[in-house]
Amino acid sequence: MSSAPQLRSSPLRPPKMKKDESFLGKLGGTLARKKKAREVSDLQEEGKNAINSPMSPALVNLHPEDTLLEENEERTMIDPTSKDDPKFKELVKVLIDWINDVLVEDRIIVKQLEEDLYDGQVLQKLLEKLADCKLNVAEVTQSEIGQKQKLQTVLEAVHDLLRPHGWALPWTVDSIHGKNLVAILHLLVSLATHFRAPIRLPEHVSVQMVVVRKREGLLHSSHVTEELTTTTETMMGRFERDAFDTLFDHAPDKLSLVKKSLITFVNKHLNKLNLEVTELETQFADGVYLVLLTGLLDDYFVPLHNFYLTPDSFDQKVHNVSFAFELMLDAGLVKPKARPEDVVNLDLKSTLRVLYNLFTKYKNME
Questions:
Q1: Does the keyword NADP apply (predicted)?
Q2: Most buried in the list 89, 197, 199, 222, measured by CB within 10 Å?
């Protein structure tokens, strides 16, 4: 801040004071000049800020390397507040758990997606396991060039898998190798969707992205919303909407009547084995009752060695429900409009679709 101008005085003789130039009058004038100088300084500071960031929101806390941009270069990063969103955290956890489950036999443990997947090593193992293939890449690559070459090979294989879907692929070798978490999440969500992973991705997860760009030597920032997941049905490319979609969306009051009718139907047959159902979504989730019911409806006994009578893992439950689906197809029923994983995950709509599939064929059985 510039100081107030000083009064000049002669070193030989001080000037005479005018009558109205009292001590208080001089003090008031000095304060007024200081206030005006401070206002000018503040205005200059505001002008400087306006020049440095015109028409831009304030920059979030950036790492130094994020500000070292070339002219017209652009960099994106997740707004720190988005990382604290519970749904975002859930998505990251679900994907990490899924990768670790797939690669458990390889003794690979992923703890942090950006740090563990950027070099292509884990992505290579994951894709080979999911697609049951072998990629022609070097096993271990320490150099940046070697890592990017491996990533290129892995991502080309992913592209070949996803291209028939016509999906946009919002990732590149540079973004993955640059530890761009959003690009890595897009890649993993696409893989989980394509391979119909036995997981439930949280729906409608989005993040706020900070876009930083350098123009005319100055940094400019803006915010954009990046959608990571939509609805389960959209992501999994499910079937056309049916009566159950309408029921859940527009007539939830009738849902209890549908559940009651289906409970009456299944118990009519399960009672033959002294079994009884009171909760559709939970008691069919392990697939045991579904297998037994399918056999009863078609009047045969299902050998116990074909399914797990007391399943104690997610995979065993999925096996049971998948086996029940096979029995339904053998009986001439249409393919259920549900995934086994959704039934195991206690998705009521999926369970109702499967049971209604049986109900429509066998409802008039004595």
A1: no
A2: 197
Residue spans of the domains in the chain: they are 77-236, 243-363
pLDDT at residue 246 in the model = 52
**Three-class DSSP category at 137:** coil
The domains spanning 77-236 and 243-363 adopt the same CATH topology: yes
Spatial distance between the Cα atoms of 333 and 337, rounded to a whole number of angstroms? 11
Which residues of the chain, if any, have pLDDT below 70? Answer: 1-70, 74, 140-141, 164-168, 232-253, 365-366
Domain 243-363 grouped into CATH 1.10.3330.10: no
- Cα–Cα distance between 81 and 89 in angstroms, integer? 12
Beta-bridge mates of residue 214: 219
- Kindly state the tokens that stand for 246: 């309408």
Q: How far apart, in whole angstroms, are the C-alpha atoms of residue 58 and residue 159?
A: 38
pLDDT (0 to 100) of residue 56: 41
CA 117 – CA 123 distance, rounded (Å) = 6
Fold for domain 77-236?
Actin-binding Protein, T-fimbrin; domain 1 (1.10.418)
**Residue 74 backbone phi and psi in degrees, to 5:** -125, 140
Residue 190: is it exposed, middle or buried by C-beta count within 10 angstroms (0-12/13-18/19+)? Answer: buried
* Other residues' Cβ atoms within 10 Å of the Cβ of residue 316: 15
CA 324/CA 90 separation, integer angstroms: 31
